[in-house]
Specification:
The chain is mostly helical. It has helices spanning about 1-10, 30-45, 50-120, 125-180. Helix 2 (about 30-45) packs antiparallel against helix 3. It is rod-shaped.
Length: about 180
């Protein structure tokens, strides 16, 4: 027993003070647990070795629990910060895209306005082009009508040519019969 007592006395107790832990871990529950633990330690005294070792185990359990709790809270804070950063980034992207869309819409409106102005007002170039197109169209129509008349004449000439060939063939037959 004396070796256990000296062994326990030789080991220094590792405790975190309130200043070492994170501010989020210091809650009312944690403070009340520490207060109860300290009051049990002071009332039991250091003469009972078995009670002292169980207190050490309880202290280490409470410390581990507090460490896990503080680590979990830090992870939650980090996750919340990440979500906040992601939200801010998405918000900035949306604002940038909205401004881009607005400028594109303004450019589109300007281009449409210019198009309407150029189509609505008769310019020198467009009227000259219309006149030349009308002249070309008229000349093409005239050429087409001339060609149609030429085709009619050709058809009549072919028919006349065929009639003359038939007559020529008949005359040749009559001449050959008379010459025999």
């Amino acid at each position: 027993m004396s070796s256990m007592l000296s062994h326990n006395k030789d080991q220094p107790r590792i405790r975190k003070s309130l200043s070492d832990s994170s501010p989020t871990a210091t809650t009312a529950t944690t403070k009340s647990l520490r207060h109860e633990r300290l009051s049990r330690l002071s009332s039991s005294g250091s003469s009972d070795v078995s009670n002292d070792t169980s207190t050490n185990h309880a202290d280490s359990y409470v410390l581990r629990w507090e460490n896990r709790l503080s680590a979990r809270k830090k992870a939650e804070e980090t996750a919340n910060n990440d979500y906040k950063k992601m939200y801010e980034k998405a918000l900035a992207t949306n604002q940038r895209l909205k401004s881009k869309l607005e400028t594109s819409n303004q450019e589109l409106a300007m281009i449409q306005d210019q198009l309407q102005r150029t189509q609505g007002r008769p310019g020198d170039c467009s009227s000259n082009m219309l006149e030349t197109e009308k002249k070309e169209s008229w000349s093409l129509k005239k050429r087409i009508s001339d060609m149609e008349e030429q085709l009619k004449v050709k058809a009549e000439l072919k028919m006349e040519n065929q009639r003359l060939k038939d007559e020529n063939g008949a005359l040749i037959r009559v001449i050959t019969k008379l010459s025999k």
